[in-house]
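dumping this here before i forget
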Amino acid sequence: MFNFTDAERAYLNEMRAITTNPQGQEVLVGLTEEETAFYMTHTRQFLTERRDRDGKARYLELHDKHERARFAVLGAEHVLRTENPPRH
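structure:
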């Protein structure tokens, strides 16, 4: 199981990039637990400049998969907000 830091969780929640899978694990939207662990480990390594060139192709594939799913979530939120606007 992958563990997000509090800062990662806050950022990912704001970006609509994190969800809970049927097993109750926090994962990136559109990715499995294993894919999330790979993606986040690769991201953390990149940010600390310990870059894994061997995993780059898989990282980019997972990034695209995750972003497509995240955009679908954002689109669904937009539809809900525009079809049911809040009343003031």
